[in-house]
Write a structure and sequence with these properties.
Number of strands: 5
Largest sheet: 5 strands, parallel
Structural class: alpha/beta
Strand content: 15-25%
Distance between the termini: 30 Å
Helix content: 25-40%
CATH superfamily: Flavodoxin domain
Shape: globular
Bound molecules: flavin mononucleotide
CATH topology: Rossmann fold
Number of helices: 6
């Protein structure tokens, strides 16, 4: 199966360090690998409401899905590789990235969609810029993505980290740019939950 990478931009600003780093890594993808780039901040999702245990059908049959949600759901299911391109915000993912992941829970409950079964075996990756130089501070984000991948029985490619605060600063992080060259070449193992 041809690889098809879905890059989901989650920074709250345009042209930031995270996107720069992700594009450096994506440049190394083989020509045959498809790339699709979507900006989550330009495709806002409705506030997530948890109606899993409300007794009624959820989502309601025939509920008109917001266009952005349908677009993101279909793009997710069409990709072999999901790349969350999110800055480190408060040691975790950005709010648009989190809102997207919360909607995975909804999609798990859509009758007939088989979201979990269809996502199994695909690969989750992260690309993250952060202001602090201490990369260990990104561990909450790395664990969160790894456990998410494990819950979904996905592969996990890990997180490509880069340092930067002002736009463009990540280009000074030569270690991150070197890691970007081979990031997507790694064999992503099946994710393992830290709860195992
Ligand atoms: C709301 C917010 C929260 C942040 N939290 C952290 C943090 O917890 N740790 C950190 O190292 N940097 C933090 N930063 C700095 C960003 O990670 C840094 O500026 C990064 O380059 C932003 O990515 P971008 O250029 O792609 O927008 C935060 C920035 C913002 C705006």
């Amino acid at each position: 199966m041809n690889r098809s990478f879905l890059f989901l931009l989650g920074s709250a600003r345009q042209g930031g360090n995270t996107e720069t780093l992700a594009r450096a890594a994506a440049e190394q993808l083989p020509a045959g690998a498809e790339q699709r780039w979507l900006d989550l901040t330009r495709l806002p999702l409705a506030d997530f409401t948890d109606a899993r245990h409300s007794g009624g059908a959820w989502p309601e049959p025939g509920e008109p899905e917001a266009g952005n949600e349908a677009l993101l759901r279909d793009a997710t299911l069409a990709a072999t590789d999901i790349v969350l391109v999110t800055p480190l915000y408060w040691y975790s993912v950005s709010s648009s990235t989190k809102a997207y992941l919360d909607h995975w829970t909804k999609w798990l409950y859509v009758p007939g969609l088989d979201f979990r079964a269809r996502m199994a075996g695909r690969t989750l990756w992260g690309v993250t810029a952060m202001g602090d130089r201490a990369e260990a501070l990104a561990q909450p984000l790395e664990l969160m993505l790894g456990n998410t991948a494990a819950y979904m029985k996905m592969r996990y490619g890990g997180v490509l980290l880069g340092n930067g605060s002002g736009p463009g600063q990540v280009l000074d992080d030569t270690r991150a740019l070197a890691r970007a060259k081979t990031f997507f070449a790694r064999q992503a193992p099946l994710a393992r939950s830290t709860g195992e």
